[in-house]
Each structure stands twice: as C-alpha cells, then as structure tokens.
Amino acid sequence: MIIELTAADPDTIGADLVAVASGIRASELGAPARALADVDPVAIAYREDPRAPLAVVGLEPSVEGLRTAAARAVRAWRGGGIVAWALDSSLPLGPEEQVRALAEGAVIGGYDRRRWRTGEPPRAVERFVICGCPDGFAALAERAALIARWTNVARELVDAPPNLMSPADLSDRVVKFAHLDSEIVDPVRAGLGALTAVGASSPISPRLIVLRHSPAGAPHAPRLALVGKAVTFDTGGYFLKPQSDIVRQKADMAGGAAVAAALGAIAELGIPLSVTGVVPACENMLSASAIRPTDVITTAAGLTVEVMNPDAEGRLILADALWYARRDGATHIVDLATLTGAMRAGMGDVYAGVFSPDADWRNTVVEAGNATGDLAWPWPLHRRYRPLIDSSVADLRNNSGRSFGFPIVAATFLAQFAGEGPWAHVDMLGPALLDEDRGDAFGPGASGYGVRLLVELATRLSVTLER
Q: Is the residue at 144 inside a domain?
C-alpha cells in the first residue's frame, strides 16, 4: 500500500472510498446510515450524488483511536483502489499525530491473514491518501508506514502454519531481509547445549539466527542486542499441552519474529546504532529424543540445569542466546518471548510485562512500548526469588516447583545468563496472538507485538549518542 499526502479535499482526488470519523459529516448520509454508524465500527454508505462511498468510522479521539479507525476503514473496504481520509481540526490531536496514526493504521489494516485460502483474494487498497495535509509531513508518514509494514512481516511469520514455518523456513526467510548481514549458527558446533537439547526433539535441526545492522560510522558502544524466542511449534514435550492451548503454539516464535522484523525496519531506516538480532529457533516436540523431566543439560554459559519442566523450554534456549549476545559484545540487551501463560492470565492480551534488575533500562523499554502502542508494564525482580531455582543435583533448575510467581521465576532464571550490563526481559505472551477482535487496529490473529517497541528503543538509544 502506498501512503500519499495532499492538501486537496478528499472529494476532489478521485478516491474509491472517502473515510471520515463518525459524526463529522454524518448529515450527508441520511438517518439509516447514521444509525448504522452508531452501532457498527465501520459503516459503508452510498451517497445519492456520484461521489465516492463514504465510510463512517467510530472514533475514540486519541492516537490509538485514530490508528484503529484508519485500520478498520481499510480492512472493511474490499473495493480496492484509493481510500482518502482528511485531517480533522476538531480532534485533540495535532496534524503530526494524525498523520503518523493514519499512515500506521492504514498499513496495519491492509494486512490479510487469509493468504492460505484458495480462490480470488479480495481487492486490496492500493493507495491511502491523507488529505488536507500541510507541507513537511512526508518523511513522518513514510517512517510510520515503513514500521507498520515490518510489523505486518512479523504478523505474517507468526500467522503462518507451523508446517510452513519451521526453524528452517524461518531462517530461510529472514536471512533474505535487505540491508542486514546474517549468519546461521549450528548450535552443536557452537556449544549451545540448551538449544541443542530442546531442538533434538524434532527431525528439523535447531539453529541460531544472527542478524546484524552495522551502519558505517556507528560508535563501538553502545551495541544493542535484541534476542527473540522462536519455538516454531511447542507441544510441551513430555509435559504435553492440553488441546485448548496447543492450538495456539505456532505463535511461540512471536518474539523471534518481532526481533527479525525489527532488525529489518532498523536497517531500512538506517538508524545509526549497531544492533544485533539473536534468534534461537527450534521445535519442542514429543519424541524419543525429547528432553525428559529431571534431565540435566549444560548451557553455553557452562551452568548446568535440571529440567523439571520440559514445557519451560523457552527459558532454556534464551539462556544460550543471551550468553551468545553478551559474548558477541552487546552492551545493552532486550529479549522478547511468549514465555509464561501466567503473564496472559494476569495481564490479558493488552500488556506485556517487562523485567530488569536495572530500573532505568526497564523503564526505558516500558516507555518505548507505551509510546508506540506496544503496551508494556514494569514487573518486579527481587533477590528472594533466586533460591526458588536452586537444584539439588545441578546449578539451576528451570522452574521453581511452586504454584506461584511463574513470570518472575522465569525472568529470574534468565537473569543468570544475561551477563554484565543493562538487560531487560519482555514476556509478551498475551498480546502476541489475539484470539478475538479486541477493538483495535489488528483484529484477531498475530499482532506483530514488539516490532514498534524495539524500533523506538533503538531510535531512542541512538539519539542519546548524538547528545
């Protein structure tokens, strides 16, 4: 989809659909259409004159509301061609905020997760024109649309069926992202014992995907590493998941998808910061070679782990990836993972939880998420959680054996492998895959959570270098 800006009125540009917020021009529609607009998020109504149909979109007067309205208008319109939307001076948002929200929302709304259906696909919107726009906002709209396009890339990776998005398929796809250097690391040869042990359950070999954005002139420090869990399907292993949960497990690679797509956006934007993406990719299957309860494995860091729960495999592969990222020279690390069901139980599908022993770094990550719509909330870490992962036979165990504190215990485990320097863990299980339409820009399915957060974080970190 192309995003265009013009100072012209939407009725003068030959649009196939003109979209407006509910109530702004409802008098043009007549009583039946106005009533429909009151109860439906998007009401497509045809005017009596020959001008384009008018989409009346229910609108909350905020950045999120405008983003959602644009996405819903694009998603509801199946006529293709051009959709026009005029900036509205009655909203409590400046033109800069409106342009950013409309461009992002339109691209997000243009995503269609039904790509595996047969038959003729619905006509997609080709151009979204923001009308009544003053000069000087083209770069802003282009940036918002670019990040939204990469968010859609992450959504496509997560929505893909697991037979078509194995660790091999994922690595084949992301190493083709433009402007990035890439490396596929064999975990056996690299001594990544935890990733090797988890991935041994599948006939498809595990791998560590490393993506690098190394712009000319970037300083030696800081160096940001983004680590993303990519279990392309998680059965739970010998702790087999119930039917109600196992059907969602193609999304257990959403953290890795977000990291890869964020690297793509960061590179295309040319952010002047060295950023590395580290994505441990594997399947966690039930097989004769799967890890068993009470197995002891040796991680890349040299610490041994007693596997008390084979379904707590994400923290195992992240342990190796965190060690790799720090050894590679990262000064700042963020990991993203669909890690604990308890996070979703506590926070729903709206917020991710953010953990870090460094309060400043944790708050920086939280603020980057909340500024972009990838909502995040700070969670605690405390030294008293550390004894809960002591093992009687190894250095650590991969869960506490208790019935409480699951997300914090998982973060405590990861902290043992994060090394020296700022590190934050983002548990994003809730918002990664939406079971239903929660009334925002995305609709059901993968949301691409984390892409916008990570791009904003890299941007903010690069800005501090310039001061």
A: no
Contact 176, 213 (CB under 8 A): no
Residues 216 and 118 in one domain: no
pLDDT tens digits, residue range 403-457? 999 999 999 999 999 999 999 999 999 999 999 988 889 999 999 999 999 999 9
Residues 59 and 164 in one domain: no
Taking only the tens place, the pLDDT of each residue in 279-323 is: 999 999 999 999 999 999 999 999 999 999 999 999 999 999 999
Query: Considering 315, 344, 362, 397, which one is annotated as catalytic?
Result: 315
User: Is 67 a residue of the active site?
Assistant: no
Helix (H, G, I), strand (E, B) or coil at 56: strand
Catalytic residue among 72, 75, 207, 241: 241
116, 187: one domain = no
Last residue of a domain, one of 70, 105, 136: 136
Query: CA-CA distances (angstroms) from residue 383 to 323, 339, 386, 387, 401?
Result: 21, 21, 5, 8, 18
**What is the pTM for the complete model shown?**
0.94
Q: Give the domain extent around 22.
A: 2-136
User: 273 and 228 in one domain?
Assistant: yes
- Identify the pLDDT of residue 44: 59
Together in a domain, 309 and 404: yes
Instruction: Write down the pLDDT at residue 465.
Output: 66
419 SS3 class: coil
Contact of 277 with 210, CB cutoff 8 Å: yes
Is the pLDDT at 33 greater than 70? The verdict is no
Is there a catalytic annotation at residue 250? no
